[in-house]
Predict the structure.
Amino acid sequence: MTASSESLTSKLEWQALQAHYPKIKGVHLRDLFQQDPLRGEQLTASACGVYLDYSKNRMTHETLGLLLKLAKSCSLDARIEAMFRGEKINVTENRAALHVALRAPKGTALWVDGQNVVPQVHAVLDKMTEFCRRVQSGAWLGYSGKPIRNIVNIGIGGSDLGPVMAYQALKFYSDRNLTFRFVSNIDATDFVEAVYDLDPTETLFVVSSKTFTTLETMTNAHSARAWLIAAFDDDARAVARHFVAVSTNTEAVCAFGIDRAHMFGFWDWVGGRYSMSSAIGLSTMLAIGPENFQALLHGFRQMDEHFRTAPFGHNLPVLMGLLTVWYNNFFGAQTLAVLPYEQYLKRFPAYLQQLTMESNGKAVTLDGTPVGYDTGPIYWGEPGSNGQHSFFQLLHQGTRLIPCDFIAFDQALNPLGRHHDLLLANVFAQTEALAFGKTAQQVKDEGVPDALVRHRVFAGNHPSNTILAERLTPEMLGKLVALYEHSVFTQSVIWHINAFDQWGVELGKALAQRIIPELESLEEPVLKHDDSTNTLIHNYRRHRLK
Ligand code: F6P
């Protein structure tokens, strides 16, 4: 059944949650823990080496039961199966969303339009592996015969954020003989600074773009081409040795001058923000090597299997997705903070912003009906403990409800003195402080003058998840990314929206195409925008540097 937005809020299961919410709204986490001393052990789940403590959430076993009933009534199980079966669940683009096939083991089958796509996936992986071995061993030579020492990924959105995040996250495992840079912004500074200290004769560009038409990426790729051939007396033949492409658009890749033999393909059933386990991960594989890349895929695969098969009450992505719905739609929480206490995950929140907000920033249901309820929250975050010294004040004493995901690892990759214990002490302290706060009586008992008591009270009752794993490895990164991918899908199923299109990015792109000639024209253009836009364009034309 294709339920409409109306049918979500009119579902008995939804209404049961609405009726339940007032009972929970006023209850403090202090009371919930007092009433249920085993809560911290029971409201947890673990799978694939990932431990989720969701006990510090404003919910009871009854809440969970009601959320699970809602998931059932939204046919979450059938929707998961539809995704894994390669059905065209991206209805507005008439495409499958089969990123799970990117990590399917050799010899298995996943079908799109009657074709088993798993062999194609492995053919590309094999080609990537062979290429990486040649670059890493120094067998791939630049045009002047020197081995490659610098890799520059040019891409944006899903063709950048995944590669950047994964490179940072897995730097510990990376080949330190190679230098990696990432260029995404159309602001020339990004490109200029990225290549500032690089020798073109030792530099390889990986132009990553699903469409190979994206303005930012193509502009940067052309600047890179010009920068490169300038070093070879404008000999364009150098391009073949210094550029490879990752794309679905063979024609455009060849038109750019990149040999199709040096193109690594993927498919329209891989969404940009779901593509880091595809050939878009080429820079990742170059950094960490094919074996580690396989481990990354293995991690994704384990979480995919868990999502597909685990009962919802023990299913990590389902639990996290349902809790997000609970805060978003019943508590009215507008944002969600992701706080990795692991410096290598410093770009993880930025990566998640595209994954979550490009997916679930939608205002109509699958059939185009206005939703009539809130959909995707704003995801944001910074690594801990840095965040504690900037925005945590607002988390603790502000007026907003901001559920938080704390992510941490038992073992440090760089053990050094007391650092790791101190880091983890901060994780546990923050979730404890957020949940339980400090009462006025406790503050008074500490001898704080009356005038300051109210300033020093911590209301507490701020919810958080704690996600713990043994160690940040390539495999673990795959699990974490898949955890959030499937949590996002779970949310979209409840909200009955399409998590796999992104029409909202189109209008700005089209308007920019109209404005570009207006900025570049030698004649004063006749402008037909609104008065604000016309004035801004006139002013810019007057004041820019020529
Ligand atoms: O900004 C929209 C978007 O289409 C993203 O979904 C995508 O990841 C990004 O642009 C880059 O697209 P491409 O890989 O085609 O260059």
Q: What stands out?
A: The longest helix spans residues 282-309. Confidence is low (pLDDT under 50) at residues 1-6.
